Amino acid sequence: MIPIEEILTIIPARGGSKGVPRKNIKILGNKPLIAYTIEAAIQSKSVGRLIVSTDDKEIADISIQYGGEVPFLRPAEFASDRAKAIEVVKHTLLEMEKLDNKRYSTIVYLEPPSPFRISEDIDQCVELFFEHNPGSVVSVFEANQFHPILMKQIASGALKPIWKDEPEGVPRQLYHPKSYMRNGAVYVLRRTNIVNNKFYGDPIIPYIMPEERSICIDSMLDWYAAEAMLVAQSKSQN
């Protein structure tokens, strides 16, 4: 049985995004980007307490409107371009433990740039975490187009492999071994790692998501892809 009362869910949403300015509250389809993550979390049966960590009053107000809790604003030192995820998680965890006068054993970390993750993705990640007792569970997708064999370096003016030579005439889907990329959709983390300044811990259990739910918006090109996905979804439902 999953101890929901021990789970703290954190959605990080700073105000100073660069690739897409103000992206966390930029309207995607008919609602702010962050609303997709908040709604998926609310629909999940495994999120426990749902906190939005932000340094921005406007983001806080919109998050509350869609059902997130914002008990405090994130200090500026944890909202800069150089701030690390581990710092955001640890700050929010310790502050919430002070406010609630309890310890949370498990953290579910959901990044707003992944609007197509669904509540079932969250639930299955949490189930994997409690079933296998790993350091963490991380959502990924199969990355044929980003396989490491495609990565090159320029050495003495010539293109050279970073890893090993790329086979000629082999379709990308047949490259071996299969490669996977984090998609930023779901992380399930262990308190004992976080307080010791470790994000993932060991071992890391993967949760594989389909490519269509793995769009992560870091640039305007990603934003246009997300808009196109919404149009495709709308057409498929009609």
If you had to describe this structure to a student in words, what would you say it looks like?
With 238 residues, this protein is an alpha/beta fold. It folds into two domains: 4-141 and 179-237, Spore Coat Polysaccharide Biosynthesis Protein SpsA, Chain A, CATH 3.90.550.10; 144-178, no CATH class. Helices cover 31% and strands 21% of the residues. The chain contains six helices and ten strands. The protein has a six-stranded mixed β-sheet, sandwiched between helices. Strands 2-3 form a two-stranded antiparallel sheet. The termini are far apart.
First and last CA, distance:
39 Å
What integer value in Å does the Rg equal?
Answer: 19 Å
Pick out the low-confidence regions. Answer: none
Work out the count of structural domains.
2
Q: What's the shape?
A: globular
CATH domain class name of the largest domain: Alpha Beta
- What's the story with the biggest beta sheet? 6 strands, mixed
- In total, the number of strands is 10
User: Strand order, biggest sheet?
Assistant: 4-1-5-9-6-10
User: What would you say the CATH architecture of the largest domain is?
Assistant: Alpha-Beta Complex
Mean pLDDT, all residues: 93
Number of helices: 6
What percentage of amino acids are in beta strands? 15-25%
Can I get a quick summary?
The protein is built from six helices and ten strands, in the order βββαβααβαββββαβα. The chain has 238 residues and is an alpha/beta fold.
